[in-house]
Amino acid sequence: MALMRPTLLSLIWLLMGGTTLGWSAPNIVLMFADDLGYGDLGSYGNPTIRTPNLDSLAAEGLRMTSFYSAPSCVPARTQLLLGRYPSRTAVGRTSVGGDGGIPSDLTTLAQGLRSAGYRTAMAGKWHLGYAREEYLPVGKGFDEWFGLPYSNDMIKPWVQTDEPLWLYRNAEKVEHPVDQDQLTIRYTDEVVKFIREESGEPFFVYLAYSMPHLPLRTAGVFRGTSRAGLYGDVIEAIDWSAGEILRALGESGKREDTIVIFTSDNGPWLNLPGRMLSGGVRPWHAGSPGPLRGAKHTTYEGGVRVPFIVRWPGRVPAGSVSAEMGATLDIYQTLLSVGGAEPPPGGDGHDMTEFWEGGVNQSPRRDFIYHHGSRAQGIRVGPWKLRTVDGDELFQLDIDSSERYNVAEEHPEIVAELRDRLSAYEARVAAETSPDE
Question: Is 127 a catalytic residue?
Fold first, then answer.
């Protein structure tokens, strides 16, 4: 396991009990929804789903409207926890029956923060390897973990497997079958308990919801409470969860020195594969990409652009909204930096601290590579997006975020420039993965 060298600042913090020269490492709460669409929160325009807690979080911090993840589960978690594009990171098969996992020479966000003196915990879906103990969260920097090793649909009738879907505590299988109706509540309870623990160390807690990934499940107390049907019930349960976490931070006196982030792994799962249309799943059990085109498993904006909210009292100006670019890759880079850890070289993220704080109006992220699985399918530079799946598609996203108008023929020079930049990235990846001669 490759751990990062603590910075001088983090060493001083450790020696002085957490504060020195006016600086203290912030606590970090990172909430990561599964298949929640760009248009599923009130603050992002949903007309019927009520998300008062997350809307309040947005009002107290920064809400970004051009924030990117990846269009499916494993690549999204690769970007978030490793700060690298999926084409540069071979994790292999990490779902049911798979033997893949995060390579030992890569440093996860949790490993980096733990090396800087953080307590670390995770609740929820992992999906980055489970076949060996060292692939589990407790082998990748988390002091404790309670959750599922992969997606909640990896059981019959949706996946034809006889391997049980186990609920884990740390490296131990503790429960089967799993009552998925209770997952959001139980994950939340774990996080709240961790937040309320008193310690001389800062903490990092990662809550990776299993919902609203299909099959939709939520506790009876939330059923029938939303005007948006079962999907709305599930989202409103997640909003309740966020509210419980925010309340715990306030009641424990940790609100002011905690960074809270909420985002999603990809867009909603529309156009379901046939295997999913059974066991009570209906085609309308999915969210909304809002005004965006596409959905999960596509590199149109609706599959990759997700909500992003960050609150950091006294640092991030309340009520901020920005259409500048950001990505889950940047969460990795930024949180390591503010936590006093030195990000490893060769990452694909940017330190967003100054941008989050409003010190600069322009995000350091000026481009983004769209991936489907481990294959690059397009690039955005400034407002221009080139998608190369079925010929060249060029969109000017500032005026056409719905990607209705392919203007490739009108701007061949921009197509050529973006193609060159995408080819340069692909050449870099090929050079990194070529065997030594």
Answer: yes
- Predicted TM-score of the model (pTM): 0.94
pLDDT at position 24 is 86
Catalytic position from the list 127, 213, 350, 371: 127
Quickly tell me which residue has 């409103």 as its tokens: 236
- 3-state DSSP helix/strand/coil percent for the chain, to nearest 5? 30, 20, 50
DSSP string for residues in 343-399 = PPTT-S----HHHHTTS-SS-S--EEEEEETTEEEEEEETTEEEE-SSS-EEEETTT
Q: Which tens digits make up the pLDDT trace of 32-76? A: 999 999 999 999 999 999 999 999 999 999 999 999 999 999 999
User: How many CB atoms are closer than 10 A to CB 298?
Assistant: 23
Q: Encoding tokens for residue 223? A: 């059923």
Instruction: Provide the H-helix boundaries in 129-209.
Output: 183-196
One-letter amino acid of 172? E
Looking at domain 8-365, its CATH architecture is 3-Layer(aba) Sandwich (3.40)
**374-433: CATH topology:** Arylsulfatase, C-terminal domain (3.30.1120)
pLDDT tens figures, 399-410: 999 999 999 999
* CB contact at 8 A, 185 and 219: yes
